[in-house]
Amino acid sequence: MIQLEQLSKFYGSDHDAICALNNVDLTVPKGSITGVIGVSGAGKSTLIRCVNMLERPSSGRVLVDGQDLTQLDAPALRKARHDIGMIFQHFNLLDSRTVYQNIAFPLELMGFDKNAMKERITPLLELTGLSDKKDRYPSALSGGQKQRVAIARALASRPKVLLCDEATSALDPQTTSSILELLREINQELGLTILLITHEMEVVKSICDSVALISGGELVETSKVGPFFTAPSTKLGREFLEEFLRIDPPKSLLDRLSSDGSDKPYPVIRIIFNDENVASPLISQLARSFELDISILQAKIEDIQGHTLGLMIAEFRGNAAHIEKALARLSDMQLSTEVLGYVD
Ligand SMILES: Nc1ncnc2c1ncn2[C@@H]1O[C@H](COP(=O)(O)OP(=O)(O)O)[C@@H](O)[C@H]1O
Ligand SMILES: [Mg+2]
C-alpha cells in the first residue's frame, strides 16, 4: 500500500519556486492498479518520483507499507527501494549490457552471486517473454521488447510496488496493449501494487481499478474507474471524458449544420449516456412521447470494465414546442447533452 499525505513539492528557490505538487493526499490500496492522469505539466512525474524519493518532497509524508520514506537515512532508503520497482517512458536501459545483464544489474548492486542471480532472472525472462532474447543488446530490440526488459529489471528485487511513468507513451497502440496486459498479469499473479501515471484515458480504461485526476499540482478527483468514465464529478474529469469519447461529426453533417436556430428549426444533439440511461429505449420513448422523428447520425459505445458508456449524435425533427420538451426531459434525466447546431 502507498499513502501520500499532504505531499508538496517546490522546485527552485523561495521567491520564484514552482509548486509542482500542492498538499496531495492519495492512497493506493495493496494489490490495486491506480492511475494518475493529468495533462503535461500537471505534476504527474513529480508525484511518482516522490514515491521512491527520486525527488525529495518539500513537505508531507510518503508511506510504503506503513514505512515513512521521508524519515529514512541513506542506507535505510536504499533498502526500502528494493520494495519499489520503476519503469519509464524511454525504458532507461544500459546500452552496453545485454538483456540478461540489464536485468541482473540491480541484483549485482544487492550482492547476489551468479547462481542466485540466474535463479531470479530465468523466470523473469519467461514471464516477460524474453527467454530467446536474453543475449541481445537493447539496440536490437523493439520498443515493446525494451519495455519488457525494463519490467523484468524492475521486478528483479521482488518489489511490492511498481511505479510506471508513462510506460506506454512511446509505444504504438498494439504494443501498448500487450505491455498493459503484461502489467495486469504481473498485478494478478504477483499481487503487485501498481501506481502508474499517464495522460491517456485509454490506459486508465484498460487496466486501472482506480484513478486520480491531477491538475496544476493538485488532486482534483479520485474515483473508481467505472464511475469516473460514466459520471466524472469535476469539470476537468468531464473534459477528459469528452476528449476520450470524441468523434468528429461527418463532413456531410457539418456542412448542413448552422449555429443559429432561427433559420434552421431542427437541433442536432450530442448525448453521453451510461448504464443507467442506455440510449436506445430512451430515444424511442422520446420519439413516441413527443411525436418526433429522431435520426441517429453517429454513435459510439464503450465497455468500461463492465459498465456501458456511449456517445450519440442525433437529429430531432418535429414540432418546435415538442422538441423543447424532449430536450427538457433529457436534461431532467441528468444526461450530459449538448446542442451541436441546427439543420433544416
Ligand atoms: N527538475 C525540475 N526543475 C524545475 N521545475 C520542474 C522540474 N521538474 C518538473 N518541473 C516543473 O514542475 C511542474 C510539473 O512537472 P511534471 O511533474 O514533470 O509534470 P507531468 O509529468 O505531469 O508532465 C511543471 O511545471 C514542470 O515544469
Ligand atoms: Mg511526466
UniProtKB/TrEMBL annotation:
It comes from the Bacteria. It is a peripheral membrane protein. Residues 2-241 form the ABC transporter domain. Its main location: membrane. It holds the Pfam family NIL. InterPro entries: AAA+_ATPase (IPR003593), ABC_transporter-like_ATP-bd (IPR003439), ABC_transporter-like_CS (IPR017871), ACT-like_dom_sf (IPR045865), MetN_ABC (IPR041701), MetN_ABC_transporter-like (IPR050086), NIL_domain (IPR018449), P-loop_NTPase (IPR027417). This is Methionine ABC transporter ATP-binding protein. It is found in: Cell inner membrane. Gene3D superfamilies: 3.30.70.260, P-loop containing nucleotide triphosphate hydrolases. It comes from Larsenimonas suaedae. GO terms for molecular function: ATP binding. The keyword RNA-binding does not apply. Keywords: Amino-acid transport, ATP-binding, Cell membrane, Membrane, Nucleotide-binding, Translocase, Transport.
